[in-house]
Amino acid sequence: MAAEGVSLNHVARESSDIDRLAQFYQEIFGLERIESPKFECKVIWLRQSPCFYLHLIERDPNTKLPEGPWSSNAAVADPTNLPRGHHLCFSVSNFDSFVKTLKEKGIETHEKTQPNGKTKQVFFFDPDGNGLEVASRNDLQN
Fold it and tell me: The domain 1-60: what is its CATH number?
């Protein structure tokens, strides 16, 4: 039998500078920094009410894997080429002013409208090169 009552709890991002990453998500999306448990490495937990969490985890300096898209062998720097399967999506009710704010902050963006003509989307990257999408509606299903 499949699990019942399933809901997404959190997404984790690993970074060598979780303070910088936390500041970005707090400033751009208004995520709230909450108390984090003590682990062997530094962690920052952010909450987007009522029940979504973003866990930022200090990267192990001894790891042999590349750190995110920017440091991989095939870095993605242009949001028009953001890989389809590599992004988090948030929805906002103030889409146009949100996009204006991104541009004022110097964040490179790529905008498009879905074929239905109703759903606007903007694609961009966080400071570690993780892909982000923001959609103009809560019921976006892609």
Answer: 3.30.720.110
Supply the pTM of this predicted model.
0.79
**pLDDT in the model for residue 71:** 46
Q: How many C-alpha atoms does 5 have within 13 Å on its Cβ side?
A: 0
Token look-up 């590599």 returns 86
Q: How many whole angstroms separate alpha carbon 23 and alpha carbon 44? A: 10
Report domain extents, the chain: 1-60, 76-142
CATH number of 76-142: 3.10.180.10
Give the pLDDT confidence of 6-54 residue by residue, as tens digits.
777 888 888 889 999 999 999 999 999 999 888 888 999 999 988 889 9
* Cα–Cα distance for residue pair 69/5, rounded to 1 Å: 33
